[in-house]
Amino acid sequence: DGGITQSPKYLFRKEGQNVTLSCEQNLNHDAMYWYRQDPGQGLRLIYYSQIVNDFQKGDIAEGYSVSREKKESFPLTVTSAQKNPTAFYLCASSIGARAYNEQFFGPGTRLTVL
Amino acid sequence: AQSVTQLDSQVPVFEEAPVELRCNYSSSVSVYLFWYVQYPNQGLQLLLKYLSGSTLVKGINGFEAEFNKSQTSFHLRKPSVHISDTAEYFCAVSGSNYQLIWGAGTKLIIKP
Predict the structure, then answer these.
(1) How far is the alpha carbon of A42 from chain B, nearest alpha carbon, in Å?
(2) Bridge pairing between strands B106-111 and B10-14
């Protein structure tokens, strides 16, 4: 089955630790995205990548980092510099990076900082 | 800057009743408009989208939406809801730099 997988589903982290969230897609999509979702708010874009070895900051990139070494993988690292990292993180992909392209979402990772 | 407003954070409705979820946007240029649905503890799934052409757009699960350029609205409707429609619904509009601008979401609560 084609789709997007995110792991782990739940993640607990101590303050001051970096943590990496995994996102893999087998849809052969060029573009990939990371969003953060907080209760009562819409999705906020952290980073996006239009093609392998290229990525751009979204609206809330501070305290996060990404890499895009392979087409199918777009891991997100939440660093200790992120002041309030507890949130639901969603990864998405689309066939291209144009605004009219449908985005396909993974099931999400819920990160809790203890 | 472009923005999306979903006027209701929650909409309670009885099963088999009609429902309308409201979405307004601000933009001075042509836009693409989307409705996504999120079931509890899951990712989002596209319900429908408006790119061009007919202003009445039909989507999955019996939902439809109407693009109204003069009102800058893209309200989502369903004539008869089912308990399985319980979810959060997000409106989004195309922004600059290939990004989508998202509304805050509306939780649809189906009462038996």
Answers:
(1) 4
(2) parallel
